[in-house]
Each structure stands twice: as structure tokens, then as C-alpha cells.
Amino acid sequence: MAPLITAREISRSHGPRTLFDGLCLTISEGDRIGVIGPNGAGKTSMLRILSGAEDPDEGEIHRRRQLRVATASQDDTFDPESTVIEVATSGASLDTGAVEDETDRQVRVAIALDQLGFQQPEQAVGELSGGWRKRLAIATALAADPEVLLLDEPTNHLDLDGILWLEKMLVSSKLLAYVVISHDRAFLDRVANRVIEVAPQDPGGTFTAAGSYSEFLKRRAHHLEARAQYRDSLANRVRRELEWLGHGPKARTTKAQARIDEAERMVNDLAQIEAELSTSQAGIEMTGSGRRTKRLLVASGIDKSLGGRQLLQGLDLVLQPGQRLGVVGANGSGKSTLLKLLAGEIESDGGRIRRAQHLQVVHFDQARQHLDQRLPLRRALAPKGDTVVYRGREVHVVTWARRFQFRDDQLDQAVSELSGGEQARVHIARLMLRPADLLLLDEPTTDLDIPTLEVLEESLLDFPGALVMVSHDRYLLDRVSTVLLGLDGSGSATPFADIDQWLAHRRPETKSRRRTQPDRRREKPKRAGLSYLEKREYEAMEETI
User: Fold this and answer.
1) Those residues with Cβ within 8 angstroms of residue 423's Cβ, 6 or more apart along the chain or in another chain
2) Which residue stretches of the chain have pLDDT < 70?
3) What is the pLDDT of residue 33?
């Protein structure tokens, strides 16, 4: 396939830090690329360079002439006073230098907003939730009629329905290519035919594998296994050469000097391989209180309404040590409300919640409201001095910060200046200091990179108490949860074995609603809507455009 964008030996630095150096990448027609890598590896910078929004410090970028590229950024900069349609229209320019018909642009905007479910185009952006702002960013990018679409963390803040729609749209799209940065492993497994890990230790700055994310994991495991075998072999050779050097060989002959030079090269190669194989992961380990009570919390007949909507009705729930409950449902279905009820932060309208005596509850708040943005990182991690007490042992704040992948020069940096993933790690670090019987986690995976997610999973699996977790991360829910609780937003709460069972339960309801619509139309004395010919013209309009 013909290349669309080619990056050769590009480098990028942020202050004193080198994000990537010598990175090479080619995007061709038919590529559906998923990009992964730890927070701070430079994934967003790479995407901005590919889009043309930024220039690399070094290297070359070549794009096909008049190539239409659109980007949906991780964090939008929409004016809260602007309306939805104003934002989408302003970002829908083709930006190719060609003269554009205004009517064509308005049609593209209308189609994109309709696809993303916007029913009130005149609504102010400031009134939108995080999920709808993310939908607006995607709609704005689609309205530009791109040939190449670049998406930076598009699943953040989307509910599961939004993620499933995005999957379907990408898989069935007529785009020449797209690149998606995401930490949602189930999403990547479905939308990518090539996965690229931004890894500075690898040649070219990336490790690439054709296929889905599952195939990437297999290929990376084989690659690391082969590198580990080579490392062991090289380590034996280095040990023999160091023993020889220890005898003090005279470097007077060309042969002896060449052997010394070769030994130095092997030592450097071994150090590079060790750095490649070492993993820099957050040391997440939730601490249980050691309580042996069989029933930690019992909820009986819980009712709760908000804004005139019945979110929970007659809910019965028993939480025991070792139970890991995943909570799923659309945005606004009452998931966060349920966690606040269990935490005792709000009261139910009816029913009763009985908690074990002196129950210790740790609540990870989705909004991170308990994290003071003005504090320096040092004080956020260690509020009472230069040490923290973890499992009865004092740990210096520098050591504690390094455990969560923070550099020493970040300790005096304000929390507000940290990335979303870094703030999530701060929040988790604070919660780890509190022994818990019951963990309540509201979207703990937002902004976390895949290495941190993997460590978080292992920690949750080892947690001895009870866990209630709200998440749209299907991979995490399927691996960690012992049972799922599906909320429909109308008061019903139904248990399910896994995500697939929950999705299968929801599909018949959707089909049933679609089947009943024609019957209601036939009962009307006059048929409303488009005529047959008008409907056919409307259906062909997008293709005609």
C-alpha cells in the first residue's frame, strides 16, 4: 500500500527530558494502528508531529500531497460559551487549500453530530459532561472529512455504549488509515491491525507487531524471551572477559587491545539489554486491614432518586471479604451514586445499609476531589513530613515517589501541573497508606498507562477485603470481577457473570424497541416523516456528497 505519512529519525524533547530519539514510522493505506506506551513516553507529541501541529526537533516528516488529516485531542480546548454546532463547524475545515462549499461543510457537520447522538446542536459546550465533550471532539474531527484520523485517548470519559459505537465506526469506516492512542486493551483488540509501542529502548524508538493487541502481546513476549536468552548468553561472555581483564592483560599488542575493546562493547550492550528488559511500573499494593468478619456490608431494599429519576429501587447487596463486584451501566445510570451510598457519603431514600463495626472504607473518587491541586507533589504524597508510614514502616518521600514512577525533580512541582495519569497515581499512592476492609473504586483506570494497569490488576486480585469497582475497562472488569452488577438507570440492578453476558442481555431490549416503532407509526391516522422517495433520497445523500 502507498505510504501516506512517513516519519524518519524524528526526535522530541520536553525541557531536559528526551521523549524519543530516532523514531521511525510509516502510515500506509489500510493501516489501523494502535499506539501504546507508558505515560510520558511522548505518544501525544508523536501524534501532533504526525498531524503537522508540531515540528520534530530533528528528523523528517513526509505527507502525501493534499492529504486530509484530522485529530481528536485527548484534552479539548473548546470555548464553554460556544454551542455544539459552532464548535463542530469551526473545526470542520478541510484545510487542504482547496475552495470549499459552505453548504457541503454544514451537511458534514450535521451528519457527524447526528452520528455521535447530539440532539441539541444549540446547546452550550459548558453544559456538556466529559463524555459528551469527548463525543464532540470526535464529531468535529469526522466533520473535517479526513482521509487519516488521529485519535488521542478517544475512550476516556466515554461510557461503554459510546466505546462500542466508536469501535463499530472505526472498523466499518472508509478512512484510508487511522492511528489511535489508547490504554483500553479490549478496544485496541477490536480496532487495530497493527500495534506500536513507543519504547525508547528499542531500535527505531518503537516495537511494532502486526495484528490485534492480543497478537502484539504474544509477539512482544517472544521478543523479550529471545532478548532474555541473548542477555544470559552475553552475561556469561562478559563475566569471562571481566575475569580475563582482572588478570591485568597488557594492551601492547593489537590482539590484546582488540579484545579489551570488544569486552567494553559487550558490557555496554549488556547494560542496554538490561534497561530494555527492566520494567518501570508503579508499585501498587492495596493494604487490607486483616479483618475476618464474614459480612462487611449488607444493603437491604435501597432506593435512591436524583433529579427526578429513580436510579436504584429495592437494591439488596451483601459484600464479603474476597468479593470483587464490578458495576456497569450507561453514564447517569447511578454507578457513582451507588459507591457514595456504600461509602456513607450520601443517604438513601429508603432501605437500610448495615456496616460491620469500625469498617474501614477507602473510596477512590472519579473526580479526585480530595486532591488539592495547589500542593506540591512532595506534600501530596507525604502530607505530614518527609516520610510516610506504609505497613508499619517509614518510607522516605523520595523513595515513595519513585515507587510510583515520579522523578526526583518533580517533587516540587504542583499537582495541577501533573498529567492526568500522574494525578491518578498520586491518588492511588495516598489511598495505599490507608488499611481497608472495603475498596470503592470509581473509574480508577482513567489516564493510567497499560504497565500501571497490569500492576493495578494484580494488586486488586490479591486484595483480601471486598471491592466494588465502577469501570468502562472491559479487560479489567473481566479479569478482576467475581460478579457484575448492571444498572439500567431506571432503578433495576441485575447481576451478571461477565461483560459478554451483560451485553447479550441488553441487545434483545434494543431490538425489541426497534420492532415496536413501526407498529406505533401504523396506529397514527396520518403518516409523519419522509415519504418513500424522500427517504431513499435521504439515505443516498451521504454517499452522493
Assistant:
1) 368, 371, 415, 447
2) 1, 94-100, 200-204, 227, 230, 234, 241-292, 366-369, 508-545
3) 96
Which helix (H) or strand (E) segment holds residue 243: the answer is helix 213-246
Q: Are strands 438-442 and 466-470 parallel, antiparallel or unpaired?
A: parallel
498/33 Cα distance (integer angstroms): 28
Q: pLDDT tens-digit profile of 442-488?
A: 988 877 888 888 878 888 888 889 999 999 889 999 999 999 999 98
The residues near 233 (Cβ < 8 Å, ≥ 6 apart) are none
Which cell is 213 given? Answer: 493487541
Comparing CA positions, the residue from 106, 113, 120, 3 lying closest to residue 50 is 3
How many CB atoms are closer than 10 A to CB 509? 10
Residue position matching grid coordinates 528526551: 18
Residue 420 grid cell: 492526568
CB 296 within 8 A of CB 466: yes
Model pLDDT, residue 515: 42
C-alpha 265/C-alpha 413 separation (Å) is: 39
Contact between residue 319 and residue 356 where contact means Cβ atoms under 8 Å apart: no
Query: What is the three-class DSSP state of 33?
Result: strand
Query: What pLDDT is attached to residue 392?
Result: 75
Distance, CA of 531 to CA of 544 (rounded, Å): 19
Q: Which amino acid is at 273?
A: I
Residue 122 phi, psi (nearest 5): -90, 5
Indicate the angle between helix axes 130-143 and 102-115, nearest 10 degrees.
Answer: 140
The pLDDT value recorded for residue 249 is 58
Residue that is written with C-alpha cell 516519519 in the block: 7
Pairs from 121-127 (Cβ < 8 Å, separation ≥ 24) = 121/83, 121/84, 121/85, 121/88, 122/83, 122/84, 122/85, 123/83, 123/84, 124/80, 124/81, 124/82, 124/83, 125/78, 125/79, 125/80, 125/81, 125/82, 125/83, 125/84, 125/87, 126/80, 126/81
CA atoms of 254 and 234, how far apart (whole Å)? 23
Q: Are residues 133 and 76 in contact, defined by beta-carbon separation less than 8 angstroms?
A: yes
| Cβ-based neighbour number of residue 14 at 10 Å | 11
The amino acid occupying position 520 is R
DSSP state of 528: -
Task: Specify the pTM.
Answer: 0.74
Grid cell, residue 431, equals 489511598
Q: For residue 94, what pLDDT is reported?
A: 59
Residues 182, 48, 57, 6, Cα dihedral to 10° = 80
Query: What's residue 435's pLDDT?
Result: 83
Find the angle CA(372)-CA(375)-CA(379) to the nearest 5 degrees: 110
Strand ranges for 376-445 from DSSP E: 387-390, 393-396, 438-442
Q: In this structure, what are the phi and psi dihedrals at residue 496, rounded to the nearest 5 degrees?
A: -140, 155
Three state DSSP letters for 95-149 = CCCCCCCHHHHHHHHHHHHHHCCCCCCCCEHHHCCHHHHHHHHHHHHHHCCCCEE
